[in-house]
C-alpha cells in the first residue's frame, strides 16, 4: 500500500544514519530506480512511526516524493519493535569480493552505495570535487608452490560469447569490438594470482602491478615476507635506519 509521506513519523531512536555523499547517492538511486521502493517498502508501526527505512524515508522527501510504499507491522511489542530496528540494519554475511570484481562495474557499485576497490580510472567528478574509491582488498599469504598459469583464470563464459560473436553476421570492426568486450567476463582467481606473483621474476611482477592484478604496499609486503629483499635494498634500508 502507498501512503502520503507526511503521514509517516521518523524514528528518533533509529541507530543508523547515512551522511554526505552516501546520502546523496541514496537520493539519486531513488530518483533513478523508484520501483525499488515497491519491492522494499518502508516498514512502520501502527502509529506510523518508522521501524525500517528511516533513511529511505528522508531520501524520499529530498527526492520530492509525495507518496511512498509502506508495510504496517501490526501487533509488535515495544521490545520487538526495538529488536526489529536493529536487525533491519544489521548486515549479515560478507561480500564475495572476487565475484564482485569480475561480474560488476566498480563505478556502478559505488554509485549504488557500496564501498569498493580502487581502479586506476575510477575517478568521479562531483560538484567539481574529485575523489577516488575506498580500497577494500583481501590480503593473501602466498604459498610455497607456484600455480600453473591455466589455474589463474577461467575464460569459459568469455569463450562462449566470442564464439557467438564470430558466428554472427558482423563487420570486422564490430566483431573485434564485441570480442574485446567479452573478455571482461574472464574470471580471475586472485589468491592464485597472488601466489603466482610471489614466485615470479621482477619483470613479470612489474607487469602484473601495472595491470592492477595485484596491489602492493611495499613496506607491508616486506613485513609479511611476501617480497624477498635484495642485498642492495636491505643495505639501503639499514643505512637509513629502517632495518
Structure, described:
It is a single chain. With 243 residues, the protein is an alpha+beta fold. The protein has three domains: 2-88, Conserved hypothetical protein from pyrococcus furiosus pfu- 392566-001, ParB domain (Alpha-Beta Complex); 97-132, no CATH class; 149-239, no CATH class. The protein is 44% helix and 11% strand. It has twelve helices and eight strands. The protein has helices at residues 20-32, 35-39, 54-62, 78-88, 97-103, 106-111, 156-167, 172-182, 190-198, 202-210, 218-223, 231-239, and strands spanning 2-4, 42-44, 50-52, 67-72, 123-126, 129-132, 153-154, 187-188. Strands 1-4-2-3 form a four-stranded mixed beta sheet. Strands 5-6 form a two-stranded antiparallel ribbon. It has a two-stranded antiparallel ribbon with strand order 7-8. Strand 5 and strand 6 (129-132) form a beta hairpin. The longest helix is centred in the first third of the chain and has 13 residues, at 20-32. It is elongated, with a radius of gyration of 25 Å.
Read across the widest sheet, the strand sequence of neighbours is 1-4-2-3
Poorly predicted runs are 117-138
**Beginning-to-end CA distance, first to last residue:** 67 Å
Provide mean pLDDT, rounded. 77
Overall SS class: alpha+beta
Whole-angstrom Rg: 25 Å
Summed up, the domain count is 3
- Helix count, DSSP H or I runs of 4 or more residues: 12
The largest pleated sheet is described as: 4 strands, mixed
How do the helices and strands follow one another from N- to C-terminus? Answer: EHHEEHEHHHEEEHHEHHHH
Tell the overall outline: elongated
Strand content: 5-15%
Helix content: 40-55%
Q: Tally of extended strands?
A: 8
Amino acid at each position: 500500500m502507498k501512503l502520503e509521506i507526511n503521514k509517516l513519523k521518523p524514528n528518533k531512536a533509529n541507530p543508523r544514519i547515512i551522511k554526505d555523499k552516501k546520502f546523496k547517492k541514496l537520493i539519486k538511486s531513488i530518483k533513478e530506480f523508484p520501483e525499488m521502493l515497491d519491492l522494499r517498502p518502508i516498514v512502520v508501526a501502527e502509529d506510523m512511526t518508522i521501524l525500517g527505512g528511516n533513511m529511505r524515508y528522508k531520501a524520499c522527501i529530498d527526492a520530492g516524493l509525495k507518496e511512498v510504499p509502506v508495510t504496517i507491522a501490526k501487533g509488535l511489542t515495544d521490545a520487538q519493535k526495538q529488536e526489529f530496528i536493529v536487525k533491519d540494519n544489521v548486515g549479515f554475511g560478507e561480500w564475495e569480493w572476487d565475484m564482485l570484481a569480475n561480474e560488476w562495474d566498480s563505478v556502478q557499485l559505488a554509485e549504488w552505495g557500496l564501498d569498493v576497490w580502487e581502479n586506476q580510472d575510477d575517478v568521479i567528478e562531483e560538484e567539481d570535487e574529485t575523489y577516488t574509491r575506498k580500497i577494500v582488498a583481501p590480503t593473501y599469504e602466498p604459498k610455497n608452490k607456484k600455480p600453473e598459469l591455466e589455474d589463474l583464470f577461467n575464460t569459459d563464459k568469455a569463450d562462449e560469447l566470442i564464439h557467438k560473436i564470430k558466428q554472427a553476421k558482423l563487420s570486422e570492426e564490430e566483431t573485434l569490438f564485441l570480442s574485446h568486450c567479452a573478455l571482461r567476463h574472464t574470471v580471475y582467481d586472485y589468491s592464485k594470482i597472488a601466489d603466482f606473483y610471489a614466485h615470479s621474476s621482477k619483470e613479470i611482477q612489474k607487469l602484473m602491478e601495472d595491470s592492477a592484478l595485484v596491489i602492493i604496499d611495499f613496506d607491508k609486503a616486506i613485513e609479511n615476507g611476501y617480497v624477498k629483499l635484495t642485498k642492495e635494498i636491505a643495505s639501503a634500508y639499514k643505512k637509513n635506519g629502517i632495518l
